[in-house]
Amino acid sequence: MSTRVDAYIWAIRLTKTRSAAGAACRGGHVRVNGVTAKPAQPVVPGDEIRVRLAGRERIVEVTRTISKRVSAPMAAECFVDRSPPPPPKEILASQPRRDRGAGRPTKRERRQLDRLRDSTFLIAALAAVALLVGACSGDEPTSDPNKPNTPEAPAQAGSGPFFGKCGGVSLEDVVRITGFAGLTETVNNTSVCEWDTTGSRTGAVASFNWYRGSPIGREEANVKLSRDVTNRLEIDGHQGFIGYTQSGQICEVGIGFGADFFEWSIRGDAATPRPIEEICDAARELATMSIERAS
């Protein structure tokens, strides 16, 4: 017997409310068997559910399906908790935090942010020139108490580039790059796009997730805990990470842009395994294409 994933993660007390469970699914923070799940995604015993909550990823295996909230002892009988231990405090302390209520900037605010970045760069360049000239003159630097300090502008949530529909790629692009025949688009909204070969997420899947105001450091820490291998990655001067698990035929590439980041996730078909290098090459190529087509 199956049940909805949003009802299940609420029933076993992973989220405090049913609405929070649905919001986590719609935000791309819930995955079933490695694939981003919609609220109505059915789950059955044996399925693996990953839920990203408060900077930590919870991983549970379904042993019994329920759709009504129960006590903690009863809930513990309905799943096997395979969650890794929480990240060390040092990692959590080093990760940036989003200001509450930052939200998505308007077009006017985006133009203002662009001007702010341009002016900040100009000020930094002038300061560097002044320091160089002062060093070459051999004179001791003097401080002017009447001269105001100009602090560096912090990263703004949503101030990264605009990636457009599905990261700027088409269904044809995804089929050509991944080599997955029979892909169809199953999810398409402002932050998530997904392509599936079976329509039931039991075969090969590719997905694009765009996170605004969600620092990439938190996601990277989760990937380090959940994937066999995780390495730093740079594409066209932009920093990020790549993580993969050979047995699960899954490779993820995340690229950061200030307080935003996007992530490409490619999962091969377990029935016809492929070298993980091929899957990761596809994830890197799709990430490169999204960066090149951003505005």
UniProtKB/TrEMBL annotation:
<feature type="region of interest" description="Disordered">
    <location>
        <begin position="78"/>
        <end position="113"/>
    </location>
</feature>
<dbReference type="InterPro" id="IPR024520">
    <property type="entry name" value="DUF3558"/>
</dbReference>
<dbReference type="InterPro" id="IPR002942">
    <property type="entry name" value="S4_RNA-bd"/>
</dbReference>
<dbReference type="InterPro" id="IPR036986">
    <property type="entry name" value="S4_RNA-bd_sf"/>
</dbReference>
<protein>
    <recommendedName>
        <fullName>RNA-binding S4 domain-containing protein</fullName>
    </recommendedName>
</protein>
<dbReference type="Pfam" id="PF12079">
    <property type="entry name" value="DUF3558"/>
</dbReference>
<dbReference type="Pfam" id="PF01479">
    <property type="entry name" value="S4"/>
</dbReference>
<feature type="region of interest" description="Disordered">
    <location>
        <begin position="138"/>
        <end position="159"/>
    </location>
</feature>
<feature type="domain" description="RNA-binding S4">
    <location>
        <begin position="3"/>
        <end position="65"/>
    </location>
</feature>
<keyword id="KW-0694">RNA-binding</keyword>
